[in-house]
Amino acid sequence: MQKRLIIGGALLLVVLTSAIVAKRMAPRLPGYLRDRAVSTVREHFASDVEFSDLQVSIYPKIVIRGEGLVLRFHGRTDVPPLISIKRVSTEIGFWELFRRTHHVRRITLEGLRVTMPPVGPRAPNTSHPTSRKKDPRPFRVVVDEIVADGAELDMLVHDPNKPPHIFYIRSLRLQHAGLGQPMTYQATLTNPVPVGEIDSHGQFGPWQRDEPRLTPLAGTYTFTDADLSTIRGLSGIL
Question: pTM here?
Fold first, then answer.
């Protein structure tokens, strides 16, 4: 009986202490989480981070919602942003904040557009450090699933007078993202030339922050209904 009272008293003390800590942290927590989230993205993608709106609520779960998110690779403004997202949202349990590695079940991205620069030397007058001495420490995060339906991938070419190769991605799922490890993916997309539908799955990553276009990609695919008339001099469906 005495042992149960001691355990019960200890649990009650932990709960009360946690409640006091949470109450004291509550006013500062949204700004703290916002700054750390931006710092994490900036560090992972070696990019300056802009957004039109970023909201953080902490009750009953921590909810992060952002709009107009833009990532400029090494701060470059002479090329399109590396990544732009119309809307992003995620939820995380409060107690995950106290873990060394934070676990997120799902991140939803709407209007994702990724623009891959051609591999080559960076423009000398646009390179500058993206990390800042006063940045809060980035999060260590593992994400079960990233959902990004209706995404777009633009592959820039070396000749600025030629249009990029554009892939419209109808459905995209990424699993087990984070910690510098490759993630699995499933994607349904439209091939630009010849126009046709691709269903693919495999592994993507880890992300190469200094040369994004060198990020490894491996998998299998099925290419159907290829319209050969989109290639000059050809016709028919493959």
Answer: 0.79
